[in-house]
Amino acid sequence: MNQAYFETLSKDYFGNLYQKVCSALTKGENVCISVIPGFGEKTIFNFLNFNFKNDKLFNEIYIYDPELENESIIDYTKKLESHKTSKTKLLIIRFFEQIEKKRETLEKLDNIRRKNPKSLTYLAVSNQEAFLNPSSHQALTTVFFSELIYFSPFDFAHTEKMVESLASYYGWKIEPSSYKEIYNLSGGIPRIIKYLTKELYESRIPLANKDKLTLIPQIGFQLRLMTRILITYDQKQIQLMGLIDEKYRLKSGLLKYFLKNFRSDMISNLYPQLGDTETKILSFFSEKESKIVTLDNLAHLMKMSDDDFSLWAIYKLISRLKVKVKNNFNIKNLKGRGYILSKSVNQ
Question: How many domains would you assign to the chain?
């Protein structure tokens, strides 16, 4: 029987992740892993679950997936603990970002566990919000997660390791001379690494052809997702996530190229007559509809894509945009705070 990809990975494939998670869980400490979508959440989950079972760290392992379960995490956990037993149980909660009222939910999960604290331990997998806003992933009256582990973009050495493991598993023949370019284009983002490697072998698309690379569905999907993240968070948070270097430059050459040419299909269709920069700025606004966008936010986005615009130039551009888009959108200036885009009342 063929092995799944995650079964072929050594325990140190993700550095000290497995050792660190095991050390905390086996001491009865709850753990939260924070992973940006597309950074290998599925592989990490399968890798950990597979090795937990192989190493027999717990008598029983349960998986709660809010996308699949009909009952709440509270009801699900109560059922697990309804029968008193000396067996050790691990409950893995996937896509924790989808759980509503997180702090209240964690408070209740902690109360359930208190009845038999040595019996039940929690491992949650969440998106980047757990790392950027850790207080939102703790209970109301206690520190629920003793360990919060953020999964950063890969460095070059780990990118090289991933390319070689993929090539070995799938039978892709990749020249080592391509590794550095794969890293420079991907910025260490696992999903982009995987599909650059795949297409390089199967389609022979030159890595220098960024136009074609961005059209690969899986890569395009991840680039759009990453662009929304860049638009949503401020510069400090983007740097904390490891997406930009100390000079605030994007690590992913492909993401930088995509951001520079970013256009919302809706905006392009509504306003084909707008200039490239106007279309891009309005596209940024549309991604944060009804939310405040500051001039600094826009300036940072322009800088990350190597567009040289002053705050004054952006301010004047927005002033012109207000008039051009007023039939569909209202761009309101909130003095001292920024701008907010909303649909026009007469739309």
Answer: 3
Q: Are residues 191 and 178 in the same domain?
A: yes
Task: State the Cα torsion 92-96-100-102 to the nearest 10°.
Answer: 80
Give the C-alpha distances (Å, rounded to integers) separating 321 from 284, 313, 316, 343: 13, 12, 9, 14
Cβ-contact 331, 339 below 8 angstroms: yes
Residue 297 pLDDT grade (very low, low, confident, very high; cuts 50, 70, 90): confident
3-state SS assignment for residue 136 = helix
Tell whether 102 and 222 lie within a shared domain: no
Residues 209 and 129 in one domain: no
Give the tens place of pLDDT for each residue, 20-37.
999 999 999 999 999 999
- Regarding whether 323 and 200 lie in a shared domain, the answer is no
Establish how many alpha carbons lie within 13 A of residue 216's alpha carbon, considering only the half-sphere containing its beta carbon: 25
Domain carrying residue 160 = 156-259
pLDDT in tens, 194-213: 999 999 999 999 999 999 99
